[in-house]
Write a structure and sequence with these properties.
It comes from Candidatus Fukatsuia symbiotica. One of its GO terms (cellular component) is plasma membrane. InterPro entries: Integral_membrane_TerC (IPR005496). This is TerC family protein. By secondary structure, this protein is mainly α. The protein has one domain. The protein is built from ten helices and two strands; from the N terminus they run ααααββαααααα. It has a two-stranded antiparallel ribbon. Helix 2 crosses helix 8. The longest helix has 28 residues. The radius of gyration is 19 Å and the shape is globular.
């Protein structure tokens, strides 16, 4: 089980997988932050911990049932010469949910109706359910990526645990920064719509290189950060 400790390639795989897991978890953190922001202040930290712990347990469970995960890519039926698998159906439903949720949040922000909450959104249990639903989508993508990069189950699980630990540390400051800056929040919502559309496209075997998506996201965040720093400097000089 621990023979990999003396293998440099195994350590390289662990580092690579950990970085990829963190990158793949960014959209998870953004969605979690937006959902948690709807809750009372006293419940937000608990919701973050439960949401990220659920994400970690779900990833570990999927890795433990690795044969079943691989089977999710087997075709169930064919639509217009495209084979549709269980994974495709999950990605389709998750993508549509993400687009709907993000569009709804944008509408509430623009209409000034951000204080409106339906009963299933404002409740603690409702927030956890939404987080776990998206955890399933993001976990599936994460696990399939891990399976393709390593043959050692322990390495894959270790990468997941380390990545979730980093996300737990980063979730609160990221969430607070997003919610305190309306333009950043709008950017995050637009990014989630992009991720949702990508999931829908992937469900129809239209592969979109993830590198382009994350480059666009980091570039946009970089520009927004420069605008924020300029605004902060202007306020200090007044």
């Amino acid at each position: 089980m621990f023979e990999w400790i003396a293998d440099p390639d195994a350590w390289l795989a662990l580092g690579t997988l950990t970085i990829l897991e963190i990158i793949l978890g960014i959209d998870n953190i953004i969605f979690l932050s937006l959902v948690v922001a709807k809750l009372p202040k006293a419940q937000q930290s608990q919701a973050r911990r439960i949401g990220l712990t659920a994400a970690m347990l779900m990833r570990l469970a999927l890795l433990a049932s690795i044969t079943w995960v691989i089977g999710l890519t087997k075709p169930l039926f064919t639509v217009v010469e495209h084979d549709i698998s269980t994974r495709d159906l999950i990605l389709l439903c998750g993508g549509l949910f993400l687009v709907w949720k993000s569009t709804k949040e944008i509408y509430e922000s623009i209409s000034g109706d951000e204080n409106y909450h339906s009963s299933n959104v404002s409740s603690f249990a409702g927030a956890i359910v939404q987080i776990m639903l998206l955890d399933i989508i993001f976990s599936l993508d994460s696990v399939i990526t891990a399976v393709g990069l390593s043959d050692h189950l322990f390495i894959m699980m270790a990468a997941v645990v380390i990545a979730v630990g980093v996300m737990m540390f980063a979730a609160r400051p990221i969430g607070e920064f997003v919610n305190q800056n309306p333009s950043v929040k709008m950017l995050a919502l637009a990014f989630l719509i992009l991720v949702g559309v990508t999931l829908v496209l992937e469900s129809f075997q239209m592969r979109v290189p993830k590198g382009y998506i994350y480059f666009a996201m980091f570039f946009s965040i970089g520009v927004e950060t420069l605008n924020w720093l300029r605004g902060k400097k202007n306020r200090m000089t007044r």
